[in-house]
Amino acid sequence: MKKITLPVFLVLTILTSCAVRKTTEGERVITIEPTTKADTIKPVVVDTAIKVTPGPMVTQQPVRLKEGWRVQIFAFADKSKAELAYQDAKLRLNVPVYLEYIPGIDNVPYKIRVGNFQTREEAERYRDFLRENGYPDAFLVETQIELP
């Protein structure tokens, strides 16, 4: 059995601090007026039984890193633009896509890089493929890569 503490503090604070009054026209108006101290409200503990269905045990292998190559396709100063480009590249490309934040190098810290190439030749072939298919500014970056 697992105990769960519900975040009822906020709900109780709001409910106990609301006052309803009527206006001269008969409309109801709710105003919030503090009526309790926060330290007097205690969280409610609810006992719940959680049923777990046994299934296959899934373990995540630790990521192994090695020096290798990736192909950089974009760089952005704006995080939201970088995230859009990252999502688009994930949909379009058949290799792993990474959104990396590298501050201090230039004024565009968000880099979109693709692949985990162990040799420069593999990375060059993929860079050439990208340049022919809509990523004309793609270039190689020597970096840590993830091994399967």
From TrEMBL:
Pfam families: SPOR (PF05036). InterPro entries: SPOR-like_dom, SPOR-like_sf. Residues 1-19 form the signal peptide. Residues 63-143 form the SPOR domain. Keywords: Signal. SUPFAM superfamilies: Sporulation related repeat. This is SPOR domain-containing protein. It comes from candidate division WOR-3 bacterium. The lineage of its organism: Bacteria, Bacteria division WOR-3.
